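**User:** My hope is that you can spare some time for a protein that puzzles me. I have put the entry right below:
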Amino acid sequence: MSGLKLRRVDPAAHACARSVQRWRGAGHDTGSGCLPRRPGYLRFCAHSEGRDWHGLIMARDWLHRSLPQLQSLLRIETSVTNIVDLFQSVPRPLLLELDELHYQTLSDVELVDPPQLPTHTLPWIDTSRGRVWVTQLPPARAASETLDSNAWLADLPLRLELMLGVSHLIHASRTRLNEGDVLRIIQPTQHAWLADRCIGVFTFTEEGILMQSNIADADQQAALEPRANVGLGALSVRLEFILATHDTDLATLSRIVDGQLIPLADDAARHIEIRANGKRVARGELVQLGEQLGVELIEVYRGTSAEQPR
């Protein structure tokens, strides 16, 4: 891809911008910017079922918002060290109504010297106890919703495989296979597979084949572990990114040799076709995302004629 001039996208900045967009769409007062470099910031790590994130908050701002009446009762201003101790002793020092920043416990609470503060753009969110700057976003949460039959992309093409069983051939047997041979099914399974995932079993009836998503037979259950009872929403989707298509014929194709050039439009990088299981679903721009290539979506097709493969 060295011949293409690609727009560079910083992964951290992109993640920051997308997070702010999501939070703002959920109705929160949020934004991004450079952290004011002044003393008094508390650094902390928030823990939530393996989705840890890191943040900063001004110590005195947090104290005054948490205990607004305290300042009028004290003759001497509370030291920042005491605020750190108080922050750690409060069961829920931060009140965040954003699911993405949900936390169970906080750890590694400490004051940060101004020279150690980050200098790059950070997302922030205003809370009732002060502005929280997120220095490390939580990892993306895997989608767990069940697949709605009316959902977008619900009609993606998938191959359902009804597997009767497996056997193994030794080398000598493979060399002697001929028409009329009968191969024995050594390990019958009757498993149904979608996108390389087992979704259940099937049985034969007089009317046809009966599908069962839950496996009752203990032997079958043991054979399928740990991939049994896979929800349809968890099935993988194969994405393909098409740089360009070029019409040709067999005569032209036969003359293609090493080093031959195929014409490419000047704006080809902005017309990357994204296919999901062979179906056109979006168009995007090819970008340099850190050390990898990425495609930033420009247009997403939802129920339009553009979805049909060309």
Remarks:
- The radius of gyration is 29 Å.
- The mean pLDDT is 79.
